[in-house]
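Last lecture ended with a question: if I hand you only a sequence, what can you say about the shape of the protein? Today we answer it with a concrete record. The protein is DUF2726 domain-containing protein. Below, first the input exactly as provided, then the predicted structure, then a couple of comments.
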Amino acid sequence: MPVTLFVVLAVGASIGVIFEKTFAAIDRDKRRAYWRGKNANRSRALSNELPSPAMETSQKKDSTQLAAEQLKVVMNADFQWRALLNKPERRLLSCIDQVLAEESPGWRTMGQVSLGEILYSRDKDAFWAINAKRVDLLIVDRDCRPLHAVEFQGTGHHGSPETAARDAIKKEALRRAGIGYIEVVSGNTPAEVRDMIRKLTSEHKKSVSPAIS
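The predicted structure:
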């Protein structure tokens, strides 16, 4: 009986080992299949996020072709220079710079500044809405930080709803960036313009001066 019992136990143990190895192999195969699938999904996700080498090459070719076509057009065209500012804008620029030299040395005025150069937004649609728009004049500090936009409104400037809409877009974008906005109309005298600029510089000095307790 002991011998028979020993044989039974040995056979049972052997069968158990066989089953354990079998299930272990099945489990191992399942794990391998799982990770292969996961890595494949990850690779597909990365391939969707990143452009393929073929796509990058195609984009580079398109950009190069576009540049070549633009160069061809430019080479076949005539160009003439034109003044950055018209006569009223030049007078306004000179008037503002004189006041800045007296009241805020280091500040200066720039002409025809693109909003895309002084504003940034994570919202791409919002950025492209203002990117190509410009302000007539821009007052900056000694570090070229934009402080105040100055728009010259000549006669008939607000003659169309489109112009008013463009101005509204510029005003709102500048306001949200903390940049001032003032309008100078054709009827303003040099003295009135100087008073406007002095007021801006005075308010700025008050805002940066430490409070006295």
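Comments.
1. The chain has two domains: 2-75, 87-207.
2. Residues 87-207 form one domain.
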